Amino acid sequence: MTAGNLFCGFVALTRIVEAKIGEGGKLDPTAVVEIKWALAFILLACIFDLLDGRLARMGGVESAFGREFDSLADLISFGAAPAFLVHRVVLSQVFIQHPEFGWFIASIYLICGALRLARFNCLAAMPGNSGGKEFLGFPIPSAAGLVASVTLFLMWGEKVEIDFATSVWRYILPGLMLFLSFMMVSEVKYPSFKTLDLRARRTFTKMVVTVLFIGSLIILREHILQFVLPGIFTAYLLYGFIRPRISRKVREDIEEETEEDEEPPSTP
Predict the structure, then answer these.
(1) Alpha-carbon torsion angle 195, 196, 197, 198, nearest 10
(2) Cys staple from 156: which of 50, 177, 214, 226, with CB 3.0 to 4.6 Å?
């Protein structure tokens, strides 16, 4: 799963390089297809990243090697790929007279993502940590997913002619990247959802709803994907701010299953 994550990040980078950007920063139909493929591979990398840790925990094969390999893959798929995407499609055209500004903005996101991953590995290796229930700072896969999904939404909004360099949306992605850079190295805590027990009764219901939701996304992807994904990642981003202000019981209902939620098997 981690290798699949890394592979998706590499393919996303190649698609971004192959996209032909015309004069003035306009994306022709061929370039639009390449960029959409790149965005799709970034989002697919998010799925691989979601699966690798859970499968390792289910198989009881968690290791320091897996943690380090996962971070290396994340840095490519969720750090370098989104930063290069926004630089090539937006920043290189907006700052065409001063390209160093574009490089600088894109590099801030990449550097903060690397710092976020390094801090995560150090905290995970420390004895007496929180057991992986919380992330300190906004997770880099979620940051990349938000950048990719918002880019998809903006491209949907520019149906006739995609020209980020002159569009009113040209400041959205750079501003979002700078904000996410700050959030990745912040001390805002986010739930990891690693403690969900698939055997628990209420988690099973959540799992069924999630499977049906993913199925609807696959079937109706052209109609709702541009709206649903940005909403999901934005909701997770905002949840970190409202989380300290809600009761512990509500947080447990959202984030994890307690022992009381699991019904004991009935005796014949």
Answers:
(1) -150
(2) 226
Measured in degrees and rounded to the nearest 5, phi and psi for residue 27 equal -100, 120
Query: Which contacts qualify for 122-126: CB closer than 8 Å, 24 or more apart?
Result: 124/67, 125/64
Domains of the chain: which residue ranges? 2-196
In degrees and rounded to multiples of 5, residue 61 shows phi and psi of: -120, 30
Q: Name the band, by pLDDT with cuts 50, 70 and 90, for residue 164.
A: low
Q: pLDDT at position 260, please?
A: 41
Quote the Cα angle for 64-65-70, to 5°.
100
Average pLDDT, rounded, for the chain:
78
Nearest CA among 234, 255, 257, 237 for reference residue 246: 255
E runs forming strands in 104-226: 134-136, 162-163, 189-191
Provide the token pair at 51.
């699966």
Instruction: With cut-offs at 50, 70 and 90, classify the pLDDT of residue 9.
Output: very high
CATH architecture for residues 2-196:
Up-down Bundle (1.20)
Segment 181-194, tens digit of pLDDT: 999 999 999 887 76
Distance between CA atoms of 102 and 96, rounded to whole angstroms? 8
